[in-house]
Amino acid sequence: MLDREAIGWNTAPDVLTVREAAALARVSRNAMYEAVHLGLVPSTNFGLRRIRIAKSELAKVFQSHGEIRRLTAAFNHLPEA
Fold first, then answer.
1. 3-state secondary structure of 26
2. CA separation for the pair 21, 36 (Å, rounded)
3. 3 three-state secondary structure
4. CA–CA separation, 68 vs 81, rounded Å?
5. What is the DSSP string of 19-64?
6. 52 bridge partner residues
7. Where are the domains of the chain?
8. What pTM was computed for the model?
9. What is the distance of C-alpha 33 from the center of its chain?
10. At what angle do helices 29-37 and 18-25 cross, to 10 degrees?
């Protein structure tokens, strides 16, 4: 099992599992799955249950969105800048 403290932006691999991406983003695994499902975090699927997220793409999510509230994300609408 991955310890949230054991992974950091400088030490994380370039391609992340959902669990690793969640640890980097400091959110729950379920929240990361939801973000992937809504298209807020770009990902690639390699068959069932093999979702991979590029670390560079996850970083872009943080650079481009100041705050994404759960209700806003549920309607797949990003806040206006």
1. coil
2. 10
3. coil
4. 11
5. HHHHHHHTS-HHHHHHHHHTTSS--EE-STT-EEEEHHHHHHHHHH
6. 44
7. 12-65
8. 0.71
9. 8
10. 110
How far apart (Å, rounded) are the C-alpha atoms in residues 71 and 81? 17
Helix (H, G, I), strand (E, B) or coil at 69: coil
DSSP assignment letter at 79: P
Q: Which two tokens stand for residue 56?
A: 């560079």
pLDDT score of 48: 76
Structure tokens at 62: 């943080």
pLDDT (0 to 100) of residue 61: 87
More confident residue, 1 or 23: 23
46-54: long-range contacts (C-beta < 8 A, 24 or more apart)?
51/17, 51/18, 52/15, 52/16, 52/17, 53/15, 53/16, 53/17, 53/18, 53/21, 54/14, 54/15, 54/16
| Three-state secondary-structure class, residue 7 | coil
The CA-atom distances, in angstroms, between 67 and each of 12, 13, 38, 78 are: 23, 25, 15, 9
